[in-house]
Design goal:
Blueprint: H1 3-19, H2 24-40, H3 43-56, H4 65-78, H5 81-92, H6 99-115, H7 118-135, H8 140-151, H9 161-170, H10 174-180, H11 182-202, H12 204-207, H13 211-219, H14 228-250, H15 256-273, H16 279-313, H17 315-325, H18 330-344, H19 350-367, H20 372-385, H21 394-403, H22 410-416, H23 418-433, H24 436-439
């Protein structure tokens, strides 16, 4: 049996272990260890490589970005900044067709620029936006689907944990990945807005329980507008954080790690100034930061060990030769790769897909002349779609569990996210065909 055959068997074994319920980190460690042992027929070498990977895998200063951005996102979440952002967006867009749906997308877009975690956005806006949309005559399932669909913006609009993980795995600049995500993220948000307005105009009963009543309420002038001072007060913390973190990052004043530290400190000041952070909440935030960060860093060590096993097996070079020999050009390979990720998204979570696929695909993409930052944005968009596709659809399940409404089934929420999936597929194709969308500011 050749080393290539062993490599392919080990990848299949990895996917099988994950599907059987083994945690992805343990599955990566196990498969990589056994693979090195079998391929080199040397148990001692497997142990030495494991020791070397554990020591050097996350020793770089760059890895401090992960706990810092996680801490910033959690502090923002407990500060009720998401609620205030939605309230201002609701006020400004109340006369627009599907105004509350558009307000949810707008608030998610701004919120994503300081959290970077889709699940956090889904949990926050389920509590804030869904009750408000339902109260104003929107179908509960559509309201929940809008929150789930727009929450994926947190994975693309920088700073994003998925962009950080991809940058580490593909060995490209994390700051560059953040810049590459700006235009595609805005395209996605704009596509969601256009879809919501169009679908409400063409199929109002898909969105609204009583379209005539909602239209009359939308055009009613008998309401008390929110004072401008209140709007500014509600928006100023999140705008200040966005300018502080992303402005400093994009101007080159901060490195990604420094931006994470400054952002976390700024988020702490916001939480304290709003008196939303007592000792108990601070302990919970610190504990969650530790749990999430350690989990991600352990995954990255495991992925590094897995990558070394793949290199020993010669798998990336062999797959690159197969792709070249099959007649796939760079674009054909990119679409084939995206299709595999879409299928994996139905059964695996986002981080697992990146950890399994990027170590294999990134060297091939580089060898075919593809820009790894453009390739990374296509990867993240494809992975994002998996957050909404059944049977896994973690964003949908997060919204369903947070909502806890027996009258709104998970199947109804999945159906309501279908228009969002369609928009994401269109943006995926467009970004793949037009690399400049990701490399415009690089």
């Amino acid at each position: 049996m050749t080393t290539l055959t062993i490599g392919f068997i080990l990848i299949a074994a990895l996917i099988l272990l994950v599907l059987l319920g083994m945690q992805i980190a343990y599955a990566l460690f196990s498969v990589a260890f056994v693979g090195i042992w079998i391929i080199r027929d040397n148990l001692g070498l497997a142990f030495r490589m494991l020791e070397l990977t554990a020591y050097s895998g996350i020793a770089d200063y760059l890895f401090a970005t992960i706990p810092l951005f996680v801490l910033m996102g959690l502090l923002v979440s407990v500060s009720n900044v998401g609620r205030d952002t939605f309230e201002v967006a609701e006020e400004l867009l109340r006369r627009m067709i599907c105004g509350l749906g558009v307000a949810t997308v707008a608030a998610n877009t701004i919120f994503a620029a300081v959290t970077g975690v889709s699940i956090a956005s889904a949990a926050v806006f389920t509590r804030v936006a869904v009750p408000e949309m339902t109260r104003h005559g929107y179908r509960p399932a559509f309201s929940a689907g809008t929150v789930a669909g727009s929450s994926v913006l947190g994975m693309l609009i920088p700073p994003s944990l998925l962009l950080i993980i991809y940058g580490v795995l593909a060995e490209v600049s994390i700051g560059g990945m953040f810049i590459a995500g700006i235009v595609p993220g805005l395209l996605l948000a704009g596509g969601f807005v256009a879809m919501l307005v169009s679908i409400t105009a063409l199929f109002p009963r898909f969105v609204l329980q009583d379209p005539d009543d909602v239209k009359a309420r939308r055009l009613d002038r008998d309401f008390t507008p929110m004072p401008r001072g209140t709007m500014i007060r509600k928006l100023s913390p999140i705008i200040a954080l966005v300018i502080l973190v992303l402005g400093g990052l994009y101007t080159g004043f901060f490195t990604p790690t420094e931006a994470g530290g400054i952002g976390a400190f700024g988020a702490l000041i916001v939480a304290l100034s709003r008196r939303s952070l007592d000792r108990k909440k601070l302990w919970q935030v610190m504990k969650q930061t530790g749990v999430i960060s350690v989990s991600i860093l352990l995954l990255l060590v495991a992925a590094s060990f897995y990558s070394r096993m793949l290199a020993i097996a010669g798998l990336p070079n062999a797959i690159a030769d197969m792709v070249t020999g099959s007649g796939f050009g760079p674009l054909g390979f990119m679409f084939f790769y995206a299709a595999i990720i879409l299928l994996m998204g139905m059964i695996l979570d986002s981080t697992s897909i990146l950890l399994i696929m990027v170590p294999i695909a990134a060297p091939i993409a580089l060898g075919m002349g593809l820009d790894l930052m453009h390739f990374g944005i296509v990867t993240v968009i494809a992975v994002e779609i998996g957050l909404l596709t059944p049977p896994f659809g973690i964003s949908v399940f997060t919204v369903h569990n947070t909502l806890n409404d027996p009258d709104t089934s998970v199947e109804q929420i999945f159906a309501a996210t279908l228009p969002f999936i369609a928009v994401m597929l269109l943006v995926l194709v467009f970004v793949a065909l037009v690399p400049g969308t990701a490399t415009l500011f690089l």
